[in-house]
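User: Show me a protein chain along with its predicted structure.
Assistant: Here is one chain, sequence first, then structure tokens.
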Amino acid sequence: MRALIQRVTSGKVTVEGKIVAEIGHGLVILLGIGQGDTEEQARFLAEKIATLRIFEDSASKFNLSLLDVSGAAIVVSQFTLYGDTRKGRRPSFSEAARPEVAAPLVEKFAEFLRAQGVPSQIGIFGAHMLVEIENDGPVTFWLEK
């Protein structure tokens, strides 16, 4: 399981002209589900992300978590995080989980974030999404479990 997290001042997901998720201060989480990934990995990453100290305190140090700043999250399914570009010119997605496996794990990940106390919204799995990210910093981290 891979997550690319971006600290944002705002984020929004639009599908077919309709806003399906929108937050202010918080994180936009691009989540890739790989073959063999489990609910336990989803729980671990959700807990890690909720408590990861990547927000600045009054001394401009990374000492505050998403929970500390009362931030929200948008979770966007992103199978392309498993794109393998080592050979040829077209990425291979053979390491990405099949949709019937990935979709429920994306939902569970968002549930686990909510259970931690993070208001969380999700994009629409499999849809063509327009994702607006106002990256704050910019601050971006790659997590893998």
